[in-house]
Amino acid sequence: MIKVSLHSLHKSISILVLFFTFNLAYAQQIPTEPEAIANGESLFNANCKTCHRVHQKLVGPALANVYDRTPSIDWLKSFIRNSAALIASGDEYAVNIYNEYNKTQMTAFTGLKDDQIMNILAYIKAETEKGPPVAATPAAAGGEGGGSGVSSEYLNIILVGMLLILVLLVIILVFLVSALKRFLDQKELSEEDKELVHSPYTLSSVTRSAGFRFILIFIIGSLGFKAVINGLYSIGIQQGYEPKQPIAFSHKLHAGAYEIDCKYCHTGVLKGKSATIPSVNICMNCHRSVKTESPLIQKIWAAADWQPETLSYGPNQKPIEWVRIHNLPDLAYFNHAQHVNVANIECQTCHGPVQEMEVVKQYSLLTMGWCIDCHRKTDVNSKGNAYYDKLVELHSASNKEPMKVEDIGGLECAKCHY
Amino acid sequence: MKNMKRLSVTLFIGLSLAVVLASCKAGGDKPGLEYAPNMYHSVAYEPYTQITDQSSGSWLTSIEYEDGHGEFYNSNALNPHRMNMRMPPAHTVSRNKANVLPYRLPKDSLEIAAKIKSPFEGVDNAQLLADGKALYTMYCTHCHGAKGEGDGKVATGVTIDGVERSAYAGVANLKGDAYKDITEGHIFHVITAGKGLMAPHGSQISQEDRWKIARYVKTIQK
After folding, report:
1. To probe the interface with B, which of A57, A150, A258, A263 has the most B CB atoms within 10 Å?
2. CATH class held by domain A2-130
């Protein structure tokens, strides 16, 4: 008997609650006017977008249908304005959500007015009815950096073809000449004409002459000499070295298109000798959620032993073996901080347009002559640096030219060799 | 005729020398021929070089090493992954110029962290803001945008050759209502430990620099 009555009580309460929410939901119509939706969109972008999307779960839940699935519009309003209070009051729905999202507290938007929240809901409703956006087809994924390479290849083929045609033309002309000669020989010709046909300067007589041979040997010899000298000069210079890296990281995409500052990843450049190769956790700053399906990103995940469920790094980490490109010999000392922090030199001055490189290569010679040339030409960046004040004073007392690096010992052997 | 022969032999040797030397040039996967290779392959451990092949450079070896490894071998068998660098031992603290101890509040202590005062509290000069701006441009702009409106290239995504490339979802609009009243301590803590979709940036940016960024963010929020 008691059981039954309890049951019926439960039932009646839930009906009451249902009725109540129904009533409230209908009492507060979500606006459908375009102005309300537009206003809601800008409010959504300014306040909600950081953690919520309409069709996608981010930090917080996807908001499609949120006005239908939550207890009521009023409940939503109080949750948006102060979710902590609602959770503390023991509201079941609020507590469940809080626990489901790893106890992440939603920011309290106390400043949002009733009509603003309704406008946001209007925008969410409009987006819900539109349905999730169709995923863009990754058709051009394979076509990266293709275009220019292919066309230059075609150009080469066309050039070779034209050369072949020219050679064929020459052969045909030689045949024509000999045929004409034979034809003229059969005819009766005057002495003058005979001399013209049988000129002493035939192709073979010219090629057998000493003068021709001297010229030919001289040309081949000097070309060979130049090649030998060029080859000797290339020893010890790694300019153009463009090794394949274990992960095909594109500077063109990251530094170029996305405009990520060089120093964001190469963090040592302002403070140390080495610009530093970024550690894997810097990759993971973005790639914990960007492009995670790519096999290259999976390599990063494996190196960091990334655990996507707990959003943490596991114990089985292993280093990525990037291939070193720039390698100064041990006999020379170089310090990035002095050049980038103190002298304020752009990375591109020495490393070239890295933001346009799909694969990074050594851009500069990195020879001593190259260093010294720059030390002779470059003015010391002494502005606002008290260290240089007296040096500049002394220099300008005897010299009208601005102070160059060479004037303060930039060419001293022991500056770099010790 | 004899002269001729000698000349052509010299030419031939010269040309083949040129061809051989031309192949020494660097390019692609080839680093090129090294002059004095001992100087390019350090005997001392080098941070960004690791050659694990024991026999590498043995053709050149001038020193008799105990384990008989070649001149170019450069890796430390005692370290994990035979790396030349090691992680600092646990519970050690690096010395720094400002003599500050590491910031150790865990990620979920945002509420306490928000009450921490900046070491630049009360300091207000152009240099501090200029530093903050430079650091913000370096570390924050590509996501949060130059004005903090969450419209950096990484947040909005880019289109290359007509293909839309991924964008990083959930970048905060620092001028939004939710962030208007946050303290410098709050900003400092979020940079250090991350929050929501933002990853921790404590390893990249020094404590001092993080406080400078926090100050700059407060000024662009106005």
Report:
1. A258
2. mainly alpha
